[in-house]
């Protein structure tokens, strides 16, 4: 315990010395997130410095091994770091699909060479990643994907199209599912990493109902991918993909909590002068606080290795449905104020745009229906599921 | 940390196997219902629970009990719910014990509770809804003690109880928390009329009429005019325990339903193959997990003496009530016609859920409290 106390004291003073004051204020919107990468436009020197110092210390990924750019911290130390960051209101230094999705998959399935090559730059925020999973004909039915990678001896030749590639127009590299064999639906898929600047890659944004455009269509036209950028075994990419999706679902289910406390909701609603709405909000609070308890329990189960492998699906489903409900209530409470799409006081139409954005929660990362199917099959073991 | 300790897991396992053997629907609920037992539960089982230490689970060690907390209590309650086991565990071992802890009245009644010989009840509600602040039953000072007059209803095990904790008004007026006093009233007090009522789930809850019931001053639990505090503690224990029982009811009903989905054939298929039923079952699974986590969280906060325990116990009771209602409704619906028969057990879960939901405040009451406390 004495060691942990020392660690806490040292962490506190390091954060005090290194976290810029601007990075101790709450993020105003998604635009304040720091994504890093080759071409990222930092909003401020402070944002850049915060990402850099944390990355150099390995504290963007505190529990990864130090050999791969992580902090090498124990679970107890990681917890202390998070607590101390929270205590000073420190922002997340780096938002990254490399950290939340690819990293865990590389740690499990990558070769030693791949781990050494890719993980440290993920930790330092040098390369921004995007995900190439869905295709126009294969959304939640991911195994139906058609993008083809032909074995050309020293490289794969990739042709096809991906869709819903979040931030592909801003990403440096992509982790991508491709078909290397047509013999079986799940069995012929491989997991490839490649540079978005490779010849033959093009991408274009998809404008969404919220007016935002985080998603893109991405096209591959005779893209050459060196063979050492294959993760795991050829035709066994489905295992990597499933593992990574589990992490994605954990991450998405956590989003339901982002602004989750009932108090935050109440504050954003202001005065509620409608009895029916007040009742709905009270019932929502019950659900939100109960889900917060579940999330805490789920995270403890994960850490203890006691969580059922299909539990992230249950959490993703419940968390995202809850988040949609939250924004329906915010819209109801806001009345015509919440309808303003472009005006001074609406902060760029925050309320309606976020409301519309949440509708994707139960679609992206596998629809709610897909998650329920996974729970029915793997946890409840219902027949033919 | 929200995971159970090894000791807690052992307690849960022990209770689970004990009640799966001795507390079954056939041996207890149906037996006492169909033989018209006036208590609605078996004293033999209560005695067995005493032998396992369960009746004194929440009683402090220095007063002869196991000195365990709310978390352990929820583990036992969930198993009681799963088996629909009728027993005075909730009202006696949790609610009354919580109110009586550290009082002279506690010294008087705890040995009997630990031995599995004493049953206690609590009388709060005066109308069809749980409104503790609205208590109007009057306790006038009279000689050396008090004289109680008024009515109570939904006093669970009231007709079987050796002692009834009666919440009465010694000052102030209905709607105020101050001015309430809790009295330990012996069952044989003169002027106390007890009507034993059978509820929808075959459990018993009394209506009380008190006509100038003379009570000694030493029957006061805690302090005169400040009875809201022990009452609040007792109600927190009660609603957290009831929430856990509701989780058990939901889990029991859903397990029964899942079994049915895996064996019943219609249209040439197992009905569990139909996606519409799979999705509803999967949704319900998640809701039960969430309700259980909320209940354990409330218990954990109670055990830590954390001030958030108040709101979380309301969350737990409301969430468990909603989820359990969903579980029993889906249970009966998915069983189809057989689910409507008395012969099948699934309907017993539906009836128990309805009673438990109302006990110590229904979903609406607790959601309103959550809304007030988080505003």
What features would you describe in this structure?
The complex is a heterodimer of chains A (385) and B (375). With 385 residues, chain A is an alpha+beta fold. Chain A has eleven helices and eight strands. Chain A has helices at residues 2-18, 45-57, 75-87, 97-109, 112-123, 237-258, 262-269, 275-303, 311-334, 350-358, 368-379; strands at residues 129-132, 148-151, 155-163, 173-179, 189-195, 201-205, 216-226, 230-231. In chain A, the strands form two sheets. In chain A, strands 1-4-5-8 form a four-stranded mixed beta sheet. Chain A is globular. Chain A starts with a helix and ends in a 6-residue tail after the last helix. Chain B is an alpha+beta fold. Chain B has three domains: 6-118, Butyryl-Coa Dehydrogenase, subunit A, domain 1 (Orthogonal Bundle), CATH 1.10.540.10; 122-227, Beta Barrel (Butyryl-CoA Dehydrogenase, subunit A, domain 2); 229-374, Butyryl-CoA Dehydrogenase, subunit A, domain 3 (Up-down Bundle), CATH 1.20.140. Chain B has eleven helices and ten strands. A four-stranded mixed beta sheet of chain B has the order 1-4-5-8, covered by helices on one side. Chain B is globular and about 75 Å long. The mean pLDDT of chain B is 96. The interface between A and B is large, with 40 and 42 residues. Chain B: Residues 226-371 form the Acyl-CoA dehydrogenase/oxidase C-terminal domain. Chain B: It holds the Pfam family Acyl-CoA_dh_M. Chain B: Keywords: FAD, Flavoprotein, Oxidoreductase. Chain B: Belongs to the acyl-CoA dehydrogenase family. Chain B: Its cofactor is FAD.
Write the topology of this structure:
The complex is a heterodimer of chains A (385) and B (375).
Chain A: H1 2-18, H2 45-57, H3 75-87, H4 97-109, H5 112-123, E1 129-132, E2 148-151, E3 155-163, E4 173-179, E5 189-195, E6 201-205, E7 216-226, E8 230-231, H6 237-258, H7 262-269, H8 275-303, H9 311-334, H10 350-358, H11 368-379
Parallel strand pairs in A: 1-4
Antiparallel strand pairs in A: 2-3, 3-7, 4-5, 5-8, 6-7
Helix pairs in contact in A: 1-3, 4-5, 4-6, 6-9, 8-9, 9-10, 9-11
Chain B: H1 6-22, H2 25-34, H3 43-51, H4 70-83, H5 89-100, H6 104-114, E1 120-123, E2 138-142, E3 145-156, E4 163-169, E5 180-186, E6 192-198, E7 204-216, E8 220-221, H7 228-261, E9 265-266, E10 269-270, H8 275-304, H9 309-335, H10 346-358, H11 363-374
Parallel strand pairs in B: 1-4
Antiparallel strand pairs in B: 2-3, 3-7, 4-5, 5-8, 6-7, 9-10
């Amino acid at each position: 315990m004495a060691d942990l106390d020392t660690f806490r004291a040292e962490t506190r003073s390091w954060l005090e010395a290194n976290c810029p004051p601007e990075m101790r204020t709450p993020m105003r919107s998604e635009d304040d997130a720091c994504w890093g990468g080759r071409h990222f436009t930092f909003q401020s020197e402070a944002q850049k410095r915060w990402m850099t110092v944390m990355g150099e210390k390995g504290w963007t990924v505190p529990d990864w091994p130090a050999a791969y750019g992580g902090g090498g911290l124990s679970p107890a130390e990681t917890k202390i770091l998070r607590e101390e960051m929270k205590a000073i209101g420190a922002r997340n230094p780096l938002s990254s699909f490399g950290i939340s999705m690819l990293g865990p998959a590389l740690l499990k399935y990558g070769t030693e060479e791949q781990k050494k090559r890719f993980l440290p730059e993920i930790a330092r925020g040098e390369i921004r990643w995007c995900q190439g999973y869905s295709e126009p004909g294969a959304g939640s039915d991911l195994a139906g994907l058609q993008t083809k990678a032909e074995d050309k001896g020293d490289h794969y030749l990739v042709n096809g199209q991906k869709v819903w590639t979040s931030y592909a127009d801003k990403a440096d590299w992509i982790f991508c599912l491709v078909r290397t064999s047509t013999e079986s639906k799940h069995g012929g898929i491989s997991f490839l990493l490649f540079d978005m600047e490779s010849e033959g890659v093009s991408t274009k944004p998809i404008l969404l109902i919220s007016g935002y455009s985080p998603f893109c269509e991405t096209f591959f036209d005779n893209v050459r991918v060196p063979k050492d950028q294959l993760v795991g075994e050829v035709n066994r990419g489905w295992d990597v993909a499933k593992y990574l999706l589990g992490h994605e679902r954990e991450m998405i289910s956590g989003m339901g909590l982002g602004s989750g406390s009932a108090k935050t909701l109440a504050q954003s609603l202001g005065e509620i002068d409608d009895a029916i709405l007040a009742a709905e909000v009270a019932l929502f609070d019950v659900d939100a606080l109960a889900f917060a308890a579940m999330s805490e329990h789920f995270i403890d189960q994960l850490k203890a290795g006691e969580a059922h492998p299909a539990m992230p699906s249950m959490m993703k489903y419940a968390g995202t449905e809850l988040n949609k409900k939250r924004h329906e209530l915010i819209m109801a409470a806001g009345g015509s104020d919440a309808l303003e799409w472009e005006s001074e006081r609406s902060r760029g139409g925050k309320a309606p745009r976020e409301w519309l954005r949440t509708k994707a929660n139960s679609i992206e990362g596998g629809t709610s229906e897909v998650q329920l199917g996974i729970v029915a099959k793997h946890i409840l073991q219902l027949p033919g599921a | 940390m929200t995971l159970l300790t090894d000791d807690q897991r052992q307690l849960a396992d022990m209770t689970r196997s004990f009640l799966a053997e001795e507390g079954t629907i056939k041996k207890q609920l149906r037996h006492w219902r169909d033989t018209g037992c006036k208590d609605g539960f078996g004293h033999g089982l209560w005695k067995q629970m005493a032998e396992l230490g369960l009746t004194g689970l929440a009683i402090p060690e220095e007063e002869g009990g196991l000195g365990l907390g709310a978390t352990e209590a929820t583990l036992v309650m969930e198993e009681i719910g799963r088996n629909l086991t009728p027993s005075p565990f909730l009202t006696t071992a949790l609610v009354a014990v919580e109110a009586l802890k550290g009082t002279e009245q506690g010294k008087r009644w705890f040995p009997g509770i630990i031995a599995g010989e004493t049953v206690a009840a609590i009388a709060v509600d005066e109308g069809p809804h749980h409104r503790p602040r609205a208590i109007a039953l009057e306790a006038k000072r009279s000689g050396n003690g008090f004289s109680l007059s008024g009515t109570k209803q939904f006093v669970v095990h009231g007709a079987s109880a050796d002692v009834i904790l009666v919440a009465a008004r010694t000052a102030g007026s209905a709607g105020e928390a101050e001015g309430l006093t809790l009295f330990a009233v012996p069952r044989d007090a003169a002027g106390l009329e007890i009507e034993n009522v059978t509820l929808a789930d075959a459990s018993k809850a009394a209506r009380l009429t008190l006509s100038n019931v003379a009570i000694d001053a030493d029957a006061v639990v805690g302090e005169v005019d400040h009875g809201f505090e022990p009452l609040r503690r007792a109600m927190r224990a009660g609603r957290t325990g009831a929430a856990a029982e509701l989780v058990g009811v939901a889990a029991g009903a859903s397990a029964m339903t899942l079994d049915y989905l895996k064996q019943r054939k219609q249209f040439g298929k197992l009905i569990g193959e139909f996606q519409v039923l799979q999705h509803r079952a999967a949704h319900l699974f998640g809701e039960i997990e969430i309700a259980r986590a909320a209940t354990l969280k409330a218990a954990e906060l109670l055990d830590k003496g954390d001030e958030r325990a108040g709101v979380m116990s309301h969350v737990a009771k409301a969430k468990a009530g909603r989820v359990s209602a969903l579980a029993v409704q889906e249970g009966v619906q998915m069983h189809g016609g057989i689910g409507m028969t008395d012969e099948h057990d699934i309907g017993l879960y539906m009836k128990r859920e309805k009673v438990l939901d109302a006990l110590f405040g229904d979903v609406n009451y607790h959601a309103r409290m959550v809304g007030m406390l988080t505003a």
